[in-house]
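Q: Given only this backbone (534 positions), what sequence would you predict?
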């Protein structure tokens, strides 16, 4: 009974350690994983290298999948560009499997002692060091949990029912493979399933061949498990997940064929290679995991473009007919797991919305002055409002995802700017409607100058509120949106003298009020943008 309890405790520590390592390292990396991925898309072999590096850093292929899905949803990457990141990130996670294959309980004790001393010295008060400290604690728990599992298995290997069950499972490739598929689907991690096998391998209860079958099955099951829970994410995320499953399925088929060639024909391949490298059964299992992930990743590189094209046909985008500028480009749906990365996406979408502001006045310009592909006031306002709504929902989700203090402050500031942007969109819509109600031939010259002036100011705002805006840009926007109350009052009086409060004059007076409000809101956005930059 004691061995069962010890094994149960070891599993608990293992899962806790894995969760802590993934969460703390992901927080430590912040949005840098997404930045690494985005920077690798246009360079040969860079997605593969960044996938391995990201998987090794986060020790979570799921986190890399989420980051890559966000880039695909944002339009910053195509499905074919992001697909290689998924299998190669699993290659990076093999680092933890290889570490667990070595008896590192003394390392775990040293980590426990070191973290305890650091907490005693209150090093955790430094926000920058806290994630690294608790990531080391998670690694210590993981290694100690594996050690407890090994101890428990050593006590259970003399239990006849346990030995009989393991012999039965290990004697059939199909059963071992099925166990791998089930465990990989439930755990959504072939890495964890392999780590759980290591104590059995080290105790001599499972041979290398059945272990390989379980690992191959777990590799396939991991993809299936992630796809089954991908229903709540947006279409680009589901496409990427499905493509990842197909890559794993094709790679697993190849691994199974190599297994049968090696076992049946006696040709030394994967198992023969790892046996020649080391005599340690646990390390052999870790190398089989590494080798299997490399094979799947290479299959993805060779067949990825065809798989991506097929997935695009299977999961068509019903909104593809809608212009891209009327749909969100940088805010994916679903749960937010990386607040720092979410903040980056929110800022990009905010800047994108700011670049659309001049288009509110397209209907008021002469036909030859309108940009190509102008979508009209009604569609522009509906599209911008929908994008802003999606952005606000995504920002709220990011604030609920326990961001760091600095990220939370930036998110709150951005929410304030979004409220100003919503008001600005409403005022621009009102101004354009009021002016458009009067035929162009009947508009007073003062109103035409207001349209041209506001259009120019909005062009300045698109630059000053953009991602590469400088303090000079914001200063320029503050100057051109300075106080103009006396001037606007003169304009209103002039319009009132033309026709009293009836008919068109009343609309044009309302337009001047909207104009004045637009300038005030733009000035506020310029001031808040400067505060956020500081």
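A: Predicted residues:
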């Amino acid at each position: 009974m004691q061995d069962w309890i010890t094994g149960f405790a070891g599993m608990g520590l293992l899962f806790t350690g894995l969760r802590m390592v993934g969460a703390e390292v992901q927080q430590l990396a912040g949005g840098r994983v997404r930045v690494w991925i985005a920077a690798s898309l246009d360079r040969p072999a860079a997605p593969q290298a960044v996938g391995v590096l990201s998987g090794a850093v986060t020790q979570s292929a799921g986190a890399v999948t989420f980051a890559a899905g966000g880039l695909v949803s944002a339009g910053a990457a195509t499905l074919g560009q992001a697909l290689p990141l998924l299998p190669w990130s699993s290659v990076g996670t093999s680092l933890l499997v290889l570490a667990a294959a070595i008896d590192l309980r003394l390392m775990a004790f040293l980590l426990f002692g070191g973290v305890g001393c650091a907490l005693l010295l209150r090093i955790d008060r430094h926000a920058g060091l806290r994630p690294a400290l608790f990531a080391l604690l998670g690694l210590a728990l993981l290694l100690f949990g594996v050690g407890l599992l090994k101890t428990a298995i050593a006590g259970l290997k003399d239990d006849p029912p346990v030995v009989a069950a393991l012999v039965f499972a290990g004697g059939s490739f199909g059963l071992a493979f099925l166990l791998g598929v089930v465990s990989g689907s439930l755990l959504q991690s072939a890495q964890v399933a392999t780590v759980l096998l290591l104590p059995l391998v080290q105790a001599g209860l499972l041979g290398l061949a059945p272990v390989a079958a379980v690992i191959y099955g777990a590799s396939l099951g991991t993809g299936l498990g992630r796809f089954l829970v991908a229903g709540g994410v947006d279409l680009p995320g589901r496409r990427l997940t499905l493509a990842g499953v197909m890559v794993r399925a094709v790679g697993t088929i190849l691994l199974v064929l190599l297994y049968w060639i090696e076992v049946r024909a006696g040709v030394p391949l994967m198992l023969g290679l790892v046996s020649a490298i080391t005599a340690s059964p646990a390390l052999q299992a870790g190398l089989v995991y590494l080798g299997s992930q490399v094979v799947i990743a290479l299959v993805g590189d060779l067949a990825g473009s065809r798989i991506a094209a097929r997935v695009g046909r299977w999961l068509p985008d019903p909104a593809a007919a809608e212009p891209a500028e009327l749909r969100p480009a940088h805010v994916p749906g679903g749960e937010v797991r990386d607040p720092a990365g979410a903040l980056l996406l929110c800022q990009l979408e905010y800047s994108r919305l700011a670049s659309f502001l001049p288009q509110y006045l397209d209907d008021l310009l002469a036909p030859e002055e309108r940009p190509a592909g102008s979508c009209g006031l009604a569609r522009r306002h509906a599209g911008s409002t929908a994008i802003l709504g999606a952005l606000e929902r995504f920002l709220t989700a990011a604030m609920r995802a326990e961001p760091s203090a600095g990220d939370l402050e930036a998110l709150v500031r951005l929410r304030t700017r979004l409220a100003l942007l919503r008001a600005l969109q409403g005022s621009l819509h009102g101004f354009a409607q009021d002016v458009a109600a009067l035929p162009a031939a009947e508009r007073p010259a003062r109103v035409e100058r207001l349209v041209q002036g506001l259009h120019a100011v909005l062009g300045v705002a698109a630059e000053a509120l953009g991602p590469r805006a400088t303090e000079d840009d914001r200063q320029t926007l503050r100057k051109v949106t300075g106080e103009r109350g006396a001037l606007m009052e003169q304009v209103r009086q002039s319009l009132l003298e033309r026709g009293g409060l009836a008919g068109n004059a009343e609309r044009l007076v309302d337009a001047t009020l909207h104009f004045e409000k637009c300038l005030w809101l733009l000035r506020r956005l310029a001031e808040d943008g400067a505060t956020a930059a500081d």
